[in-house]
Amino acid sequence: MPSILVVEDESAIAELIAINLRHAGFEITLAENADQALVAVDAVLPDLVLLDWMLPGQSGVALARRWRADARTKELPIIMLTARADESDKVSGLDAGADDYLTKPFSTQELLARIRAVLRRRVPEALDAAVEVGGLRLDPSTRRVARLGVELKLGPTEFRLLHFFLTHPERVHSRAQLLDRVWGDHVFIEERTVDVHVKRLREALQPAQCAQMIETVRGAGYRLTQQVMASAPSA
Ligand code: CA
Asked: 4-aspartylphosphate modification sites (predicted)?
């Protein structure tokens, strides 16, 4: 279930957004101001933030800039909400690092469409679409993983880990990033937990001869690659 942090000081609007998004299958956390939002994100990275521009204290724009400047949150998907339809505001919102921008009042339909578009682009592992790399296919809706007709059995953590790798192939992910994005906990789980589950994932992939798709990148973390599969001699 994709998680969304709604940062909005007007409680009536926040509640209405929360009700509609929960109804649409999202997990919602509410924050009334920048301080609450920072605490929430520090605890668990949401899949996306709906960020009101006008907040008491630190503004939504300042908060977006702050998240963009931090390595852990620089890729956090953000949709800015504003009562102002001014084009120059839209530009400064996007300049501050927002992925999209919605002017109040907006319909639930429009909000959902924007959220899904940003998630598809930025957090595909939060959605239910099947994904395939190097013939290795994972379907979240049926919970099935297979390669070349060989059905693979994965535990729940290995399934989520593989889903994340498949939706972000060829990129190196540190253990801390994996804890944040796959476990949702970067503070209380030890990094070697990641190593344990990567080992289990490789074992689970072995029957389809693709364990080597999960590469260890020394001193950096792990990466899913299909390059090793095409290991024919080349110039
Ligand atoms: Ca406001």
From this structure: 52
